[in-house]
Design brief:
The chain is mostly helical. It has two domains: 1-95, no CATH class; 96-153. It contains six helices and four strands; from the N terminus they run ββαααββααα. The chain has helices spanning 31-45, 61-95, 100-113, 127-134, 138-148, 155-202; strands at residues 4-8, 17-21, 114-116, 120-121. It has a two-stranded antiparallel sheet with strand order 1-2. Helix 3 (100-113) packs across helix 5 and helix 4 crosses helix 5 (138-148). It is flat and about 95 Å long. 8% of the residues are buried. The mean pLDDT is 79.
């Protein structure tokens, strides 16, 4: 006779069980019982079992893997559901009809944050940011802005960006001759450095 325990799977309908030789301490309490449980859980865990705190919480390897697979499928279904909800939201926004009240609200907000047709938006505002702020489709904001205000990016901003780009190109062109000269000198230096080695080869 060998002292030990028999763990039985607690999953409904499963009759799997596994014996494990161990010096049981049925009459002990406290720390010793906890040590015994950890020992059993570690031993059976190495065999693919999950040992729970109650009889119905034990799981054999087959049921444990099935539970993990089910959890993965649920997580994937949740992700797919979130993606579907996002898609439905986009479709719902596209199907929404702009009312006179929507037009008024968008116009008032544009009147507040849009400076003029030369500068465009102020304080980092954009069509997208305004649409999110009001909870309306971006296409509505673009429509009202185009009809009543001007371009999303003002002409003044565009001219300023072009000016900065031209200044940068001028700086690049100014240093281009010096870069070319530096490359030429590096090539000469490399050639001079290799010459002694080439001469040495000839006299060998």
């Amino acid at each position: 006779m060998v002292h030990g325990i028999i763990a039985r799977c607690g999953a409904p309908g499963c009759e799997a069980e596994i014996p494990l030789p161990v010096n049981t301490m049925q009459n002990t309490r406290g720390a010793d019982a906890e040590v015994e449980w950890r020992f059993i859980a570690r031993k059976l865990g190495a065999k693919g079992w999950h040992v729970g705190r109650s009889r119905t919480a034990h799981r054999c390897p087959r049921c444990l893997n099935a539970a993990k697979f089910s959890s993965i499928r649920k997580a994937e279904a949740m992700q797919n559901g979130n993606a579907m909800n996002d898609k439905l939201k986009v479709e719902k926004d596209n199907m929404r009809v702009m009312t006179r009240e929507d037009r008024r609200i968008i116009f008032e907000k544009l009147n507040e944050v849009y400076l003029n047709d030369k500068v465009g938006y102020g304080d980092g505002w954009t069509d997208e940011k305004l649409a999110v702020d009001l909870g309306v489709p971006r296409a509505w904001v673009k429509l009202i802005r185009d009809e009543n205000f001007g371009d999303e990016v003002g002409n003044e901003n565009i001219r300023e960006q072009i000016k900065e780009a031209r200044e940068l190109m001028s700086q690049v062109k100014a240093i281009e001759p010096r870069v070319s000269e530096a490359q030429r000198l590096l090539a000469v230096a490399d050639k001079i450095e290799k010459s002694p080695a080439e001469i040495a080869k000839v006299f060998k």
